[in-house]
Amino acid sequence: MVIAAVGTRMTAVADRLADRTGWGEAIVGATLLGAATSLPGITASVTAAVDGKPQMALSNAIGGIAAQTMFLAIADLTYRKANLEHAAASLANMLQAVLLVFILSLLLITMATPAIAFFGIHPVSPLMFVIYFAGLVMVKRAKEHPMWQPRSTDHTRTDQPDEKETPASQDWGLWLRFAGFALVVVICGIVVTKAVSTMVDHHNWLGESAAGAFMTAVATSLPELVTSIAAIRRGALTLAVGGIVGGNCFDTLFAAVSDIAYRDGSIYHAAATATSSSGPSEMTLIAATIAMTALLLGGLLYREKSGVAGIGFESTGIIIIYLSLLGVMALV
């Protein structure tokens, strides 16, 4: 309840900052809003890595991305005017989806290749930080000098500032409010995560991978669901999609940070080895998340106006893949 109340207010402040800084909703959603709502998740992944639970650390990181993508499909159901991906199509969100697919594919390749580690860290972990920040620079440049524009329709909601751009010195109040709201969301997210972790410890029938993917991941992703729905209700559709897709790009860094926190070698191969007897759960999770993101990107490109229950093929497909993944992971 606190996450719902504070997350809604935090979204309103983020929307104002997007206008007043001139950054735009997609960039603010990917950086400020995405990072703030992701902090509980990174805390859960690092804690699991330090505790020597590589499967849970990775499953929470990637499972959070899958859950948040599914949350975007749920948020699509709350926007009744048109398909959300049709209305919120923007070059920035598409580029962030491409960046996410690339980083996830890199993780999949890493887990499928021989184990390499220097000082207990796989070389791909620092590379992920470089790729992520390079991707943000690319998105920012594309916004400033676009080489492609989505076709405008009656249902298109472009990112049009409601407030004039102002010097940063005049926005300290907004920045402090955002930081305060973010701190409350982080604390609540950690409390919820701790509760779920305790449940997993007492009822371990679900398994480490499935528990990380569908319990701690969903629990730590609740702020993203709240902020996305709040953004849609404000009419900030680009912020809603950008907060999820950009936040998902940020969430891939959970895996890199977890690898640094895990001191027994590469966490990617530790997780793959731990599941070798029962199936590569984390690799299945990554592959399914890539498929979900590809569907989302397809929806942003194709821009179906309406579909089943007012949502497009991409949201329908994302929900089907996620529910199927839930069944597969529970069995594995």
Please, could you describe this protein's structure?
- With 332 residues, this protein is mainly alpha-helical.
- It has a single domain (2-147, 182-331), classed as A middle domain of Talin 1 (Up-down Bundle), CATH 1.20.1420.30.
- The chain is built from 13 helices and no strands.
- The protein is globular.
- The mean pLDDT is 79.
Task: Tell me the structural class.
Answer: mainly alpha
Biggest sheet: strands, sense, closure?
none
* N-to-C series of helices and strands: HHHHHHHHHHHHH
* Approximate strand percentage: under 5%
How far the N terminus sits from the C terminus, by CA atoms, comes to 33 Å
Cα Rg: 19 Å
What's the domain count? 1
Task: Report the strand count.
Answer: 0
Compute the number of helices: 13
CATH fold naming: A middle domain of Talin 1
User: Approximately how much helix is present in the residues?
Assistant: over 70%
CATH architecture: Up-down Bundle
The shape, in one word, is globular
CATH superfamily: NCX, central ion-binding region
> What is the arithmetic mean of pLDDT?
79
Which CATH class?
Mainly Alpha
Which stretches are low in confidence, meaning pLDDT under 50 for 5 or more residues running? none
